[in-house]
Design a protein that fits this description.
The structure is a single chain. With about 230 residues, this protein is α+β, with helices and mostly antiparallel strands. It folds into two domains: about 100 residues, Nitrile hydratase, beta subunit (Cyclin A, domain 1, Orthogonal Bundle); about 80 residues, SH3 type barrels, CATH 2.30.30.50. The chain contains eight helices and five strands. It has a five-stranded antiparallel β-sheet. α1 runs parallel beside α4. The longest helix has 15 residues. The relative contact order is 0.14.
Amino acid sequence: MNGIHDIGGRHGLGPVIPEANEPPFHVAWEGRMHGIAVACQISGINNSPEHRSAVEQLPYVTYLRNSYYENWVCAFEELLVRKGIVTSAELHRRAGEQSAIVMQDHPHEPTNLSEYASKLKSVLYQGAPQDRPISRRPKFKPGDPVKTLNLNSRGHSRLPGYVRDKTGVVELYHGAHCHSEAQAEGRGEIPEHLYAVRFNACSLWGPGGEAGETTVCVDLFEDYLLAV
């Protein structure tokens, strides 16, 4: 999708200023939102690509105005309504019942975790690996030159705009992983070979790119690539 989220190479957005000793969450509700997202995922309500796709489809002004986790809230409101978990009326009613943000303190972790809680904790701390077996052999190996396709998908894509129709070199082979586009579209887990492809900055942005040894590595699925 050609959206405001795809910012590689864009001008006018200002410098990235790292925050010293930045905490995982700046306010308590952000942690709760993160927990809701993981709970939805392990409950089978949605997957990460569906979540990303919902964020990417937010209106440009909303996306830029919101904080990171505010965009998560907006995305999950849309996802949960679409999947019939809640209704828009229920969300509006609940929001209207609160004159201010009130959130109870999070309870301490119990000594004995349920199976569900153990799974949630595992995903929170270890992630949810997406590598899967595949019978088809990979087309490429490290060192192979490749060229990306010029795709302009209306839905979720893991092919950034700034690397479309560009030539690079395979740096690493990651094995086969669930294709994010298929998951975002509700087509299930379809494995595809995944590579880290290295691009020279000048090949991406021309003479305005940083000269010398500056490179960018992007993880790309095999069906985004052509042999050179």
